[in-house]
């Protein structure tokens, strides 16, 4: 079914679908209620296991070859993805959550800059317009939860946004190679660093049964599946557009918290969410119309020939 779609449509479906799958991330972390170090440890271990399972299902006997194809570029992808994970979690520890989300919303701009500098990719004006509109919309969503915060926390959030943008840009340097296998290595890196800090602080406690079940749901199922789809996005789309679609997680994640925990967003946040979703929808419909027009023109030219 997916192979009948255009190259671009496949990228939109994979990346947007992945963002929606991981959208309960913030909600489930709140429900799990573990310290950041323990969350990082179990997140790393369980996501690594989940990624391995997905690889075995997808590639079977060719799993090892899929890892080898990533090469040194894949090592870089794993390190950058690990940095974005640490930046996001530690950013939330040292500054307001709204600051973190607002800074992360700048990832598409950073990705656009990296792609222009290192890959020579130019984005159409409609994409730049969509990036700025979504940045405004995301700012409205988190307006009530922003503040001065701490420079350390804001710095971690900027690290997360920059690493995420660099990750997607690095993937574009080898557009024919799927880098999602390297997310396994990223999970192991996160778990190893979290475990070393946990042991240094006096040990690691086992989570309760309820917390463990939620950890399995989030880290063994949702995150591996969602991030596998997202990491395949740069195979089909410019890095900036992959980052743009990641903003779906912010909007839908806010709605999850509202629905389950009753944390009703302010009216201005609802306006911001509508702006982000409306912008992405309008951009998608407009580009689909352009694709159809181009296919029709190409078909007409072939008939004349």
UniProtKB/TrEMBL annotation:
It comes from the Bacteria. Pfam families: EamA. Keywords: Membrane, Transmembrane, Transmembrane helix. InterPro entries: EamA_dom, EmrE-like. The chain crosses the membrane at residues 12-33, 39-58, 70-94, 100-119, 126-143, 149-170, 182-200, 212-230, 242-261, 267-286. Residues 16-142, 153-280 form the EamA domain. SUPFAM superfamilies: Multidrug resistance efflux transporter EmrE. This is DMT family transporter.
């Amino acid at each position: 079914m997916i192979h009948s779609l255009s190259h671009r449509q496949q990228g939109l479906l994979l990346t947007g679908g992945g963002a929606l799958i991981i959208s309960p991330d913030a909600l489930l972390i709140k429900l799990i209620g573990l310290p950041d170090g323990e969350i990082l440890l179990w997140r790393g271990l369980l996501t690594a296991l989940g990624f391995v399972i997905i690889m075995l299902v997808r590639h079977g006997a060719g799993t090892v070859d899929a890892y080898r194809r990533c090469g040194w570029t894949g090592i870089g992808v794993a390190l950058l993805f690990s940095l974005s994970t640490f930046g996001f979690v530690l950013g939330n520890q040292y500054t307001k959550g709204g600051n973190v989300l607002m800074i992360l919303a700048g990832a598409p701009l950073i990705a656009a800059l990296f792609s222009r500098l290192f890959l020579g990719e130019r984005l159409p004006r409609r994409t730049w317009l969509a990036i700025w509109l979504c940045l405004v919309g995301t700012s409205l969503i988190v307006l009530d939860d922003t503040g001065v915060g701490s420079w350390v926390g804001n710095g971690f959030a900027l690290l997360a946004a920059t690493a995420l943008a660099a990750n997607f840009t690095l993937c574009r340097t080898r557009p024919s190679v799927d880098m999602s296998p390297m997310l396994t290595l990223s999970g192991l890196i996160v778990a190893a660093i979290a475990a070393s800090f946990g042991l240094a602080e006096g040990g690691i406690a086992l989570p309760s049964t309820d917390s463990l079940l939620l950890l399995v749901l989030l880290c063994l199922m949702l995150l591996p599946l969602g991030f596998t789809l997202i990491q395949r996005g740069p195979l089909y789309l410019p890095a900036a557009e992959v980052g743009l679609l990641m903003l779906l997680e912010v909007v839908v994640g806010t709605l999850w918290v509202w629905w389950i925990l009753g944390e009703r967003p302010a009216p201005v946040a609802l306006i911001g969410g509508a702006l982000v979703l409306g912008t992405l929808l309008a951009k998608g419909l407009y580009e689909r119309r352009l694709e159809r027009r181009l296919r029709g023109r190409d078909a007409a030219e072939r008939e004349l020939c």
